[in-house]
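Budget justification aside, the reviewers requested a transparent look at the raw inputs and outputs of the sequence design task funded under Objective 1. We therefore reproduce one unedited record. The lines immediately below are the structure tokens for a 287-residue chain.
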């Protein structure tokens, strides 16, 4: 008795009938068909298993290597802003206060510098100061230094420097703004890490918001700190003081600008279209 069967290809379509009991068909067609089926099975495995495709994003399109490179470049810009912020927040060279050189005696003079967390007084030798400089300083000169942390955050006491009293509310507000900006930087960095590891462009949007807000808060903290310095100088006029913002303020100002630029870059990369192609459409060579 003859039994008829059909050979199916890779897509499930019948190729044609075959005889199960014929010796010639089993001898000639069997190995060829078995080899073809094995080749098709191996090709299917290589398509879905061996040749790994890139994961697709939430929009259904795979993140290309060019997009990944642009994200890493923007992330490097944001990291520069984070490093400058940490460097500026952790130092006490935000402002320098200096009385005239001849206010105390002719041999030594006293200068002070402070930041968000602690203040330092430094005794300098008048012979080491530039003769053309009227005030004591700068604070980078060698001398005896005494630094203490502010008691704003523990007992709520104001600090007194050169008979002038700080405004603790302004100082605490500047410090809190700086700390909240650092928290937003950490959240933005986590979003970018998730975007690169999972290849999901959606995380670029919250990252851009975090970095832009952190840059704005850093600049706002700088403005509040400057107001606290002016309030300190206006609290008492007994001792004439010369004040100047130090290098930490420059780090904070540059950090705020860099963070805002990094956030804008992430926002542009998160757009579904290129803004340059939208604003400046490329004309075809045929047109």
């Amino acid at each position: 008795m003859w039994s008829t069967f059909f050979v199916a290809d890779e897509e499930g379509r019948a190729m044609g009938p075959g005889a199960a009991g014929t010796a010639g068909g089993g001898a000639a067609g069997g190995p060829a068909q078995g080899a073809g089926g094995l080749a098709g099975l191996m090709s299917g495995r290589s398509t879905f298993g061996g040749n790994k495709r890139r994961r697709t994003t939430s929009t259904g399109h795979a993140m290309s290597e060019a997009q990944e490179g642009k994200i890493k470049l923007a992330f490097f810009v944001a990291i520069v802003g984070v490093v400058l912020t940490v460097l500026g927040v952790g130092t006490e060279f935000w402002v320098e206060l200096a009385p005239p050189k001849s206010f105390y005696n002719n041999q030594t003079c006293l200068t002070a510098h402070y930041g968000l967390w602690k203040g330092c007084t430094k005794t300098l030798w008048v012979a080491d100061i530039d003769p053309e400089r009227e005030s004591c300083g700068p604070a980078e000169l060698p001398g005896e230094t005494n630094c203490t942390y502010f008691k704003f955050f523990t007992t709520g006491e104001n600090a007194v420097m050169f008979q002038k009293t700080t405004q603790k509310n302004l100082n605490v507000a500047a410090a809190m703004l700086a700390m909240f900006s650092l928290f937003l930087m950490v959240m933005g960095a986590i979003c970018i890490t998730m975007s690169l590891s999972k290849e999901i462009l959606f995380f670029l949007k919250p990252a851009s918001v975090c970095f832009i807000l952190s840059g704005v808060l850093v600049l706002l903290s700088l403005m509040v700190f400057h107001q606290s310095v002016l309030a300190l100088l206006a609290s008492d006029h007994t001792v004439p003081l010369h004040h100047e913002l130090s290098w930490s303020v420059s780090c904070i100002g540059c950090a705020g600008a860099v963070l805002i630029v990094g956030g804008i870059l992430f926002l542009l990369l998160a757009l579904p279209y290129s803004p340059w192609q939208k604003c400046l459409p490329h004309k075809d060579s045929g047109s």
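Residues 1-7, 18-61 have pLDDT under 50 and may be disordered. Strands lie at 4-8, 14-19, 95-98, 108-114, 118-125, 143-149, 160-161, 164-165, 242-245. Computational costs for records of this kind are itemized in the attached budget.
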